[in-house]
Amino acid sequence: MHQKILIADFGSQYTQLIARRIRELNVYCEIHPFHHFPVLTDDVKGIILSGSPSSVRDADSPKFDLSGIRGKVPVLGVCYGAQLMANNNGGEVLPSKIREYGRAHLVTIDSSSELFADIRPESTVWMSHGDTIAKVPSNFKIVASTPDVKVAAYKIAEEATYGIQFHPEVTHSEDGKTLLKNFLVNICKCRQDWNPASFVQETISSLKKTLGDDQVVLGLSGGVDSSVAAVLLHQAIGKTFIAFS
């Protein structure tokens, strides 16, 4: 069983990109809607909270209970995820004076932070947010800032729980992949032993074991999801699989 990272999706346009970057680092991950998040199992090594088009200040904004997660596995909140944790713990999130969309530079970095290992000062990061964390709770330590965003990143004391205001998954963040690797490997202790080929073989083996001699009928839409499912089922059970469109 591969180790895995779970991504709580709050509706960000970048959520799939977070997953892609993690898989490029040879770590298996799964995206789950924030309101249908699975219970932690032994193979879960960390949680990432995605961004969102919503504001934590809105009454109908996505809510997520971290009480059963924090302290058990490392957590990384990205943009909305970072604001959500700050807001829920007594911090203050306010509208930005100017909506920040584009490149920014980290002018201060806590060199002792595992999350920012091998990331140089003045590193370019990509911002996309209308709110900002104006005040952090007393047990939150600021570990990175830009000229306009004091709380560009923080760590919660006595926990492997982090929040970042920028998007490391976007290529415009120069050291974004390094930051994600720091989180996955140095903090979550993931082994980097997963790749797409192993996923295919493991899925086919699992389907063979589960389905046996059963017949399976699949409605094929022509989209990516049903097409991939059809190929995997065909390779797993062959003649007992029927697809129609």
Any idea how many domains?
2
CATH topology tier name of the largest domain: Rossmann fold
Number of strand segments: 12
Could you report the average pLDDT, rounded to the nearest whole number?
90
Overall description:
This protein has two domains: 4-187, Rossmann fold (3-Layer(aba) Sandwich), CATH 3.40.50.880; 196-244, no CATH class. It has 245 residues and is α/β, with parallel strands linked by helices. It is 25% helix and 29% strand. It has an eight-stranded mixed β-sheet with strand order 2-1-3-4-10-9-8-6, sandwiched between helices. The protein has a two-stranded antiparallel ribbon with strand order 5-7. The protein contains five helices and twelve strands. The model has no long low-confidence stretch (mean pLDDT 90). The protein is elongated.
Question: How would you summarize this macromolecular structure in one to three sentences?
Answer:
This protein is an alpha/beta fold and 245 residues long. It has 5 helices and 12 strands.
Describe the protein's topology:
Blueprint: E1 4-9, H1 15-24, E2 28-33, E3 44-49, E4 75-78, H2 80-88, E5 92-105, E6 108-109, E7 124-135, E8 140-145, E9 153-156, E10 161-164, H3 176-187, H4 196-211, E11 216-219, H5 224-237, E12 241-244
Parallel strand pairs: 1-2, 1-3, 3-4, 4-10, 11-12
Antiparallel strand pairs: 5-7, 6-8, 8-9, 9-10
Helix pairs in contact: 4-5
Features:
245 residues; alpha/beta; Rossmann fold; 2 domains; 8-stranded mixed sheet; two-stranded antiparallel ribbon; 5 helices; 12 strands; 25% helix; 29% strand; elongated
